[in-house]
Amino acid sequence: MNAGLALFFSFLLAIINQFNFSLESAFLQNDPARLERLLPLDSPILITLPEPFQVSDCFSRQQAFQVMKRLFEQTSTLEFFVDQENLPVLDRRGAILQARWSTSDRRDGRKHLFRLYLYVSPEKSPQTNKTGLKIREIRAERR
To answer: How far apart are CA 40 and CA 125, in angstroms?
Structure first.
């Protein structure tokens, strides 16, 4: 039983590490298309972001892409990293990851620092039949 559990956790950590790399790349490159690949196909995504964005609603994958596209057009990401000190909080259906996101407004140069909380859960891709993590919720608070 312990060997099976260890194998499961090593598999889960490998998926989380791959997900973290994809997530960091999407934000650091201000690329909403990369981020869209991390969103579920048929489930709504809750996005709650404070000022200066002031977004709080459930969105389809396409709507979430448009929201993130607009945000990436308004700002430049200065830094983004998944917090390695705060391990993912796991539950039966997914995990909560924490990240730090620093942006600069393209219009006035103001800088903003956010703590992001991402709720992710596994989803099997119908095209590749592989399981990967998908973002179900993005919440942020100003730091």
So the answer is: 9
Place of tokens 């859960």: 121
Q: Which two tokens stand for residue 109?
A: 């140069």
Residues in CB range of 140: below 8 A, 6 or more apart: 48, 49, 50, 101, 114, 115, 116, 117
- All structural domains of the chain, each given as residue ranges with its CATH number in brackets, are 2-142 (3.10.450.50)
Q: What is the Cα gyration radius of the chain?
A: 16
* Cis ω for the linkage preceding 44 (within 30 of 0): no
Q: Is the pTM of this model over 0.90?
A: no
Q: pLDDT digit string (tens) for 69-95?
A: 999 999 999 999 998 777 677 677 888
- β-partners of residue 77 are 103
Among residues 66, 46, 65, the alpha carbon closest in space to that of 57 is found at: 46
CA-wise closest residue to 35 among 64, 13, 12: 64
Q: For residue 52, is the peptide bond before it cis, meaning its omega torsion is within 30 degrees of 0?
A: yes
Kindly report, residue by residue over 89-117, the tens digit of the pLDDT: 767 788 899 999 999 999 999 999 999 99
CB 28 within 8 A of CB 80: yes
